């Protein structure tokens, strides 16, 4: 997947949203609706400027299209960002104003949780909008999508371990987790239960303390650069985008990189550098698809068991991608891209654009 670094991105639609009364500043990016309506979370983050927010939402929406395709979902790729500090700027008025903008797209974009937003926020957005997933369970939603995101990352990690060491067990393997928020802390739980030795870091002391309260055997290091240089078997970036920059890639001593963060590569070509160094890199949009699978299941009347079974298939998808990469002598990221792009291209020949409410295959009644 080529990340977007120029102004022309190939997106179907990019919408800038502003509401003076509530202070809302948001961007919704729809990359592709060839496979279906674009489902992707809303990130609430204090970007330094609009250009940084635009760059992030463009990259994230491309990743969502590839993620849905590779996961076998009949969904397109979209993402949204709200510019601001969620601790200071989030309000009911702002979220409801944002919901009205989503509603105006007529079903071409369906939102969910992401960094800085949670299920209760989706409840408020749903007051103004029919196209919302990830609501609380008492409001008909699936709740926190971090549950199956972490589960899916764990399954991908097991497949990577099998490919590299011949067994999917992580017992005795030393795993470094950068970022122990909603997804990272759940991933730590899976790893500890499987017998892995876990080392963590996070900019939040509270997040670290919460993990240590449940898993006192977990080690802690000062920061991400320190963890990257540590003697690890697996390095798991689970925080924000751009975690794998040139300095981090050159410092890594781990055999595998497999984490939950979106858009981990800070710039194009780093997947090839990792491959040349003999480090197995599991593409992030393949690894972290569990959350998308969870909220997508709401569109069919949510069943956790059904969604979990589908998320477990991330193990098989990862195995398939790694086998193709080995057979064709290409990095795993290139193998994953080919599979995702092939499915999108096939769908695009039949229906290049999802028409939202005018498309007979999706109705508001189904989304409620």
TrEMBL record:
Positions bound to NAD(+): 179-184
Tell me which residues make up the Glutamate/phenylalanine/leucine/valine/L-tryptophan dehydrogenase C-terminal domain. Answer: 143-352
Which GO MF terms does the UniProt record name?
Answer: nucleotide binding; oxidoreductase activity, acting on the CH-NH2 group of donors, NAD or NADP as acceptor
Which positions are catalytic residues?
79
Q: Which SUPFAM superfamilies does UniProt cross-reference here? A: Aminoacid dehydrogenase-like, N-terminal domain (SSF53223), NAD(P)-binding Rossmann-fold domains (SSF51735)
| Pfam family for this entry, one | ELFV_dehydrog_N
Record's keyword annotation contains rRNA-binding: no
User: What PROSITE patterns does the annotation carry?
Assistant: D_2_HYDROXYACID_DH_1, GLFV_DEHYDROGENASE
Which keywords label this protein? NAD, Nucleotide-binding, Oxidoreductase
Q: Is Oxidoreductase found in the keyword set?
A: yes
Alphabetized InterPro entries for the sequence: Aminoacid_DH-like_N_sf, D-isomer_DH_CS1, Glu/Leu/Phe/Val/Trp_DH, Glu/Leu/Phe/Val/Trp_DH_C, Glu/Leu/Phe/Val/Trp_DH_dimer, Glu/Leu/Phe/Val_DH_AS, Glu/Phe/Leu/Val/Trp_DH_bac/arc, NAD(P)-bd_dom_sf
Family listed: Belongs to the Glu/Leu/Phe/Val dehydrogenases family.
- Protein name as it appears in the record: Valine dehydrogenase (NAD+)
Q: Which organism is it from?
A: Thermasporomyces composti
């Amino acid at each position: 997947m080529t990340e977007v670094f120029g102004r022309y991105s190939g997106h179907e639609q990019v919408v800038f949203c502003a509401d003076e009364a509530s202070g809302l500043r948001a961007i919704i990016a729809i990359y592709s609706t060839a496979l279906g309506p674009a489902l992707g979370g809303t990130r609430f983050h204090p970007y330094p400027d609009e250009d940084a927010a635009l760059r992030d939402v463009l990259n994230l929406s491309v990743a969502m299209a590839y993620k849905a395709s590779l996961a076998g979902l009949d969904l397109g790729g979209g993402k949204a960002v709200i510019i601001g500090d969620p601790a200071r700027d989030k309000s009911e008025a702002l979220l409801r104003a944002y919901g009205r903008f989503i509603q105006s797209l007529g079903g071409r974009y369906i939102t969910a949780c992401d960094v800085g937003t949670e299920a209760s926020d989706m409840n408020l957005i749903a007051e103004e909008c029919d196209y919302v997933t990830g609501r609380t369970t008492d409001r008909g939603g699936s709740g926190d999508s971090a549950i199956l995101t972490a589960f899916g990352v764990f399954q991908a990690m097991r497949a990577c371990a099998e490919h590299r060491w011949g067994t999917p067990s992580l017992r005795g393997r030393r795993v470094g987790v950068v970022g122990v928020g909603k997804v990272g802390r759940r991933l730590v739980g899976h790893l500890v239960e499987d017998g892995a030795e876990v080392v963590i870091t996070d900019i939040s002391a509270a997040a670290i303390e919460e993990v240590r309260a449940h898993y006192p055997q977990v080690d802690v290091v000062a920061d991400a650069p320190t963890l990257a240089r540590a003697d690890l078997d697996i390095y798991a970036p689970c925080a924000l985008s751009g975690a794998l920059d040139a300095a981090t890639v050159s410092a890594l001593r781990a055999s595998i990189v497999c984490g939950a963060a979106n858009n981990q590569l800070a710039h194009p070509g780093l997947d090839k550098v990792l491959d040349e160094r003999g480090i197995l890199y599991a593409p992030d949009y393949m690894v972290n698809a569990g959350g998308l699978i969870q909220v997508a299941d709401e569109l069919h009347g949510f069943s956790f068991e059904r969604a979990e079974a589908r998320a477990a298939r991330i193990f098989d998808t990862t195995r398939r991608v790694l086998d193709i990469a080995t057979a064709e002598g290409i990095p795993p990221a290139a193998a994953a891209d080919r599979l995702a792009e092939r499915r999108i291209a096939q769908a695009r020949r039949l229906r290049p654009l999802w028409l939202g409410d005018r498309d007979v295959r999706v109705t508001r009644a189904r989304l409620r």
